Amino acid sequence: MRAKTAFWDASAVVALCAGDPRSPYVRRQLREMPSLTVWWSTPVEMASAIARLSRSSAAFNRGGALHRLEVLRAGWREVSPSGALRDRAERLLERYALRAADALQLAAALVWCNDRPPNRTFVCLDQRLSDAARREGFTVATQP
User: Which partner from 56, 86, 115, 130 sits 20 to 30 angstroms from 9, CA to CA?
Assistant: First the structure.
């Protein structure tokens, strides 16, 4: 039996690694869907979030967040960039009020599922991106 997989947006991965009020929720999602697929630039988005949190709070556990990221990264699958993915992201920007990075995340999720999002889970804590993913046909796991 294969592990249940989901596409994880960087917002959810940040909550897994950085100790955020939503962390218990995303940890529960991870237990239910232990096989993570992420967009190729998620590590860059994570580095940005961890650096920002480190600068804003002396109490932030940067080492712990980086360690949790490395543990996750060792087991996740990444969707690689391509011209087709970039073109899809550009089309998504016409349909939805997304930021560029979010359009790339959603395009990567669509590549991951071969453009068949029904019965596929998209884990995300960003409301606008969650709404767009839901409209594309994904089951969106967001914080209740």
Answer: 56
1 band by pLDDT with thresholds 50, 70 and 90: very low
Cβ-proximal residues to 6 (8 Å cutoff; 6+ apart), any chain? 29, 33, 35, 36, 37, 120, 121, 122, 123, 141
- Closest by CA to 12, choosing from 99, 30, 3, is 30
∠ Cα 143 118 77 (to 5°): 70
pTM of the model: 0.91
**Residue at token pair 């967001």:** 142
5-141 fold = Rossmann fold (3.40.50)
Q: How far from 12 is each of 48, 75, 90, CA to CA, in Å? A: 14, 16, 23
Q: What is the DSSP letter of 137?
A: T
